[in-house]
Design a protein that fits this description.
alpha/beta; Rossmann fold; 10 strands; binds adenosine-5'-triphosphate; binds magnesium ion
Length: 255
């Protein structure tokens, strides 16, 4: 579905260039859940921007359904690193903005938004404003906003980065449930090794900046991956493997 072919990105800066990505190659299959794991600043957000046409790569190309991406892609949902909700719009109005941008029937968009609000456990909060919600609730609204137009491709940029461990664990379980139901294609960026393994069909591990693919690891664990999976020998073996890769790269060390 989505292909990154020799993708490189050099940002122009006041004093020269910052090389964010070099020769990144990998494919994302239709309906696949791919997690991207890498240290801060290695180009993960850049990568999602390129995959949605929000940023044009400076070498190589990104290809969606056989066509090179040259402009922003419409049939995508994006959960940004910050929730980016509009403070002057209610929860419901923040979600239906997608329908407004796309000139869709707002009655249908509103019905879908209400259904999503129910699914993420925010029923009764649809008329509240973002500042009346907790961080986890705000992030849930931004997930609804990314899903309401039923995109085939969903980009999630560290959506749970600002959440506490308990909320994060529950949101992971809920996201998997939703994905098993809808089977859209997801690219999910994270710094968290357990989260990367538990969500993924495939993990793309990136090197420190400039980001390159260090390794691609297929994850073969039964779904749904409940809390118990973390105790299974297969999960522990994946965690050991990924930790070793980060130790090899010098990102994790014991002294
Ligand atoms: N618009 C920009 N102009 C110049 N440099 C940029 C721009 N956006 C990103 N960069 C640089 O590109 C590199 C990669 O940035 P990016 O935001 O993609 O990293 P990241 O892996 O998402 O980091 P984090 O995990 O901290 O979110 C960084 O060194 C950053 O300084
Ligand atoms: Mg980022």
């Amino acid at each position: 579905m989505l292909k990154f072919e020799h993708v490189g990105m050099k940002y122009k800066t006041l004093t020269g260039y910052t090389e964010a990505l070099i020769d990144v190659n990998f494919d994302v299959d239709d309906g696949e859940f791919v997690t991207i794991l890498g240290p801060s600043g290695c180009g993960k957000s850049t990568f999602l921007f390129i995959g949605t046409g929000l940023t044009k790569c400076t070498s190589g190309r990104a290809v969606l359904d056989g066509k090179e991406i040259t402009k922003p892609v419409k049939e995508v949902g994006f959960v940004f690193q910050d929730h980016l909700l509009l403070e002057w719009r209610t929860v419901l109005d923040n979600i239906i903005i997608q329908g407004e941008f796309r000139n869709q029937d707002l009655k249908i968009t509103r019905e879908k938004a209400m259904e999503l609000i129910r699914q993420v456990g925010l029923e009764g909060f649809e008329k509240k404003y973002p500042w009346e919600l907790s961080g986890g609730m705000q992030q849930r609204v931004s997930i609804c906003r990314a899903l309401v137009h039923e995109p085939k491709l969903l980009m999630m940029d560290e959506p749970y980065g600002a959440l506490d461990a308990l909320t994060r664990e529950q949101m992971r379980v809920d996201l998997e449930k939703m994905w098993l139901d809808k089977k859209n294609t997801i690219l999910f960026v994270t710094h968290d090794i357990d989260e990367a393994i538990l969500l993924a069909d495939k993990i793309v591990v990136l090197t420190p900046r400039p980001g390159q693919v260090k390794e691609i690891i297929k994850i073969d664990l039964p779904r749904p991956r409940n809390m118990k999976v973390k105790e299974s020998p297969a999960f522990l073996a994946y965690r050991k493997r990924v930790t070793e890769i980060f130790m090899e790269m010098g990102i994790l060390h014991e002294d």
